[in-house]
Amino acid sequence: MRKPGKSLWPLLLPLLPLLLVALFQITGGEWQAALRNNLFDQYQRWHPRSYVEVPVRIIDIDDASLERLGQWPWPRQRLAELVDRLQAAGAAAIGFDVMFAEPDRTSPRAAAELWRLDGALRQQVLALPDHDRMLADSLRRADVVLGFSLERGRQAKATGREPAAKVAFVNLGEPQTAWLHTFTGAVPALPLFEAAAKGNGALSFLPDGDGVVRRVPLVLRLKDSILPGLASETLRVAQGAPTMTLRSAGHLNGFTGAADNGGLGEIRIGDFRIPTTAQGELWLHYSGHQPTRSIPAWRILAGEVPAATLAGQILLVGTSAQGLMDLRFSPFGVIPGVEAHAQALEQILSEHFLERPAWARGAELLVLVGAGLAIGLLAVRARALSAAVACAALLAAIAGGAWYAFLAHGLLLDAALPGIGVLLTFIICSLAHHLVSEREQRWIRDAFARYVSPNRVAHLVEHPEDMDLGGRRQECSFIFTDLAGFTGLLEGMDPGRAVALLNDYLDEMIAIAFAHEGTLDRIIGDAVVIMFSAPVIQPDHRVRALACGLAMDAFACRYASDLQEKGIPFGMTRIGIHAGEVIVGNFGGKNIFDYRALGDPINTASRLESANKHLGTRLCISGEILSAAPATPARPVGRLVLKGKTLPLEVFEPVTDDVVKRAPLAEYRLAYEALCGDEAAALARFEKLAGDYPEDPLLRLHCQRLRGGESGDLIVMAEK
I need a labelling partner for 227 at 20 to 30 A (CA). Which of 96, 311, 543, 615 fits? Predict the structure, then answer.
């Protein structure tokens, strides 16, 4: 019988991340709201609302209007002229996204007080037409909606007067005033203007935490009073409707009594039925910038706009001028505040709505739990690839379903949180499922790495198909090292002690190779062979090999020097480095095989290591290696014809830390360049340098060659 823990944990494990995500979804929070809102914004950026010509225009007090007609605020007689022109053109309604909370400072009465006029002059000035009354008269003749602001909190201004309500509200179902956004203070228009206007609407927006306006309130609450928003009130006045009908969500769904307590569901204004949020807001589906949406105010006042363009239009007077600061954030960037009202009206008139229904959160939670459990159970039982494909398919289905709902039905469904829950469940369950197998692989890898290079082991774990016999052509770099005099060391001291020193030496040499991501090809006694770009391809294998060889040389010198100071005659390490095309793969039989590289570049690297003995150097590299790192300081040795070869090979000696014992690089190169020209001059230069730097082996080598009658830089190696 199986233990309960072994049978139950695959079933219980998916529940942990699902419970956490589900709890987060239920409780909500700013982070969740921000994530959802950003997703909805992305929907709009991918698919903005198609702009349809409807009778809605913005009369824009833009920067050009301010430049032509003067700074804001304009005298009220100019605004009266604007209203008169719009009304004469046949506007259906005029909504002002502008506050008229204070008297006109340019009015004759204000001027008389400012200049402290008295006597006959004061009477003459006071006899002039009052600008505020001129505007009030124009408002009385037109279908105008004024704006007021609502405030709450400590900043709420107590004016002692509430905005005048021009509309009556009718409730279908239980009143849902508790759901409306509530304010405690207001800044209304002057009573003179309120009395003259046909409507009065709130200008206030309620942006989300990130400052983006995603919804426009159609109705709001000031203390115990319900007031309309500017967009809804302007629509009402345009239709000549005396009332707005507020229909509760419960009434829409057939609930009554206590069950009818889900907030608003719909607002009826004249011939239009508008779905709303529970708080009485309209979700905005932005269309992006449309130049035809706005008409500069100066063109109206200049008489440049035909009456036919304005006839029957709902006109919103607002500002896009930067200095007037009536700017809002939208999913598409900064827009004038009046444009949000205009786009709301466009959606209503075209009957294009976005909705986030009351059942959305429940549906999202159901998808989260169902899909999460399915992928969790699959992840703990199936192969990794199958589970990953299934997870990707589920995530695509969730995202695609939400996207289709937006495109086809205007529904705002959150695919982000269910997707995160599914992905988190998949990750946790997959990790748990593969825990045991990972332990086993780790044990095998650690054991195997004692015999094979770590990068080779890692490559085989990821690519087991490479265990097959065979090879492939590939560019690789090779390092050959050999320890001089180790046989004599064995004869002169305790073999156990000598082997311990050798093991310490080899351990560090191999560690350096692994640090540069080289592959240990083989160890032959005290010699080490390292290759690069196999099995893992390394485009910079020449640079890696050179850096590795220099690090090995530096370590070997320090190690030998430390032991020699202790009286132990540990020898010098000779290193050869070369690169070229080889065949890399597994060679051997079905039962036993070896991963190796075959080709002439390997033999060349080996012979470069041996050439150090003849040249008196420690480190020899080919031109193939140096070409990948031309900035590396190196001395040309000559064109070596290695034993068994017919073609010469350019060989260099890197200038290492013991450069103080050698000739300056620039002087050496001048002498070397003379080899192919004037032999006498070359001999003179080398003899002078050899006299100054007697410990430099290359100087001695070239002096001996030149004295022996050789010329040029071609060196034929008689030995391996």
Answer: 311
